[in-house]
Amino acid sequence: MDEADEQFSITQVSARIGLAPDTLRYFERQGIVPSPRRDNSGRRLYTTADVELIRMLVHLRETGMPLADIAQFTGANDKATDPDGFRLELLTAHRRRVEGRREELDRALEVISRKIADYSDRIMSAPSFLDRPDCSIAFNVQGEGPLLFLVGAPVGRAGFAALALELAGRFRVVTHDPRGIGASRAVPGMSAPTPEVLAEDLAALVDRFTGGPAQFVGTSGGAVTLLELTRRHPQLVDRAVLHEPPLVSLLDDADLTDRAAAAFAVAEADPQRAAQEFFDLSGAGHHTGPDQAPPTHMALPELPAPELDKNRYFLGRMAGPTVFYMPDIEATCRASLALCAGALSHHQMARRSTEALAGQLGLPLIDMPGNHMGASTEPAEFARAVSALLEG
DSSP secondary structure string, 367-383? Predict the structure, then answer.
């Protein structure tokens, strides 16, 4: 029998779709799913086309389409002069609703991820400290295997907690809080957290463990730190995975440059405004595929006092030297690097700059799970992808 001619009982459809038979009967009475033909004994007989239509209607229901709209979609042939056009309108309107909900869920996920990082920081084993001339760097070590440093800026130990746990089965993972972040201790007159200074901090941390080369994964500003480490201390870098270094300096975009500079300029006096402006210009809080652009504006909630203080430091002192950093292309070409960007970061500032860097270095751009924050929001998938790049 051809698959298109195959017939199913209501019990079989229930098992395939995951809806109870009583639910199917209820949806049928409400006109939400079409009534199937029946055999001589009055039992329902569903075709393959019926099953696929019901499966799609279930997806519509699960994504929040009102039951009345689903019923209209089902009965369009009877009620619309142009049923295909009518269904297209219904689906287009529903897609807009789903995309709006997805943006809300993305923001909620970001907040949840930050809270996970906060609680991870509280329960994390007490850090060790590396003394520097003008600060002490807090760091943690876990796992066994080749030495692997996870590098962020401003992300520190807490932000990498989930990823480090995923990688600890394959590597001896070192995470640290950059100067001025987390548990790292500043002293009066501490040098600004430029890529040059952060690279020297990282080099000292590497020397704390080994005098030879190690492996690295750097995300966002941490990837910029690794670019400078590669220039200053190439002997320390065996292999480095760079995920979305946000180098505005590589983009021929005067408007973006001006907007970034303006955001950093107000960070000390108005960190809420600075965070909003940087969020909008970076697009990094969104999930965007190849045919999608991040929204030009999405209002952030009022940040609590601790978050405002973090943004005073990050946006006021760290972000400017990071995004305006100009990499040494000749030195970088000599290093063993993998350049990566989020598969859901298209048309965002950091992915665009990583594409530009890949073009200058003649390297492929490798898609990674998630968006700019994939290392923290999708740690298991990110760890698998990173491990393949480091071990391959």
Answer: EESSSTTHHHHSHHHHH
Amino acid in the structure at residue 46: Y
> Which of 104-108, 213-217, 220-224, 352-356 shows the lowest per-residue confidence on average (mean pLDDT)?
104-108
Secondary structure class of 138 (helix, strand, coil)? strand
Contacts of 252 (CB under 8 A, 6+ apart): none
Residue located via tokens 């070192």:
174
Q: Which residue, 198, 250, 251, is CA-closest to 229?
A: 198
Cβ neighbors of 144 (< 8 A, separation 6 or more) are 168, 172
Task: Output the six-digit token pair for 349.
Answer: 């500032």
In a 10 Å sphere around its CB, with 0-12 CB exposed, 13-18 middle and 19+ buried, how is residue 184 labelled?
Answer: buried
Q: Select from 375, 380, 333, 385 the least CA-distant residue to 350.
A: 375
Strands (E), the chain: 7-8, 37-38, 44-47, 128-132, 135-142, 147-151, 172-176, 185-186, 214-219, 237-243, 337-342, 365-368
* Residues 97-147 pLDDT 10s: 888 887 777 777 777 766 665 665 555 568 999 999 999 999 999 999 999
Contact partners, residue 177, CB within 8 Å, separation at least 6: 127, 137, 138, 139, 156, 157, 183, 184
Task: Report the C-alpha gap between 94 and 77 in whole angstroms.
Answer: 19
Q: Which helix (H) or strand (E) holds 282?
A: helix 271-282
DSSP strand pairing (147-151 vs 135-142):
unpaired
Tell me how crowded residue 268 is: count the other CB atoms within 10 A of its CB.
14
Q: How many CA atoms lie within 13 A of 215 on its CB side?
A: 19
Secondary structure (3-state) at 216: strand
Provide φ and ψ at 159, rounded to 5°.
-65, -25
Rounded to whole angstroms, the Cα distance separating 287 from 100 reads 12
- pTM of the predicted protein model: 0.74
Amino acid making up residue 348: Q
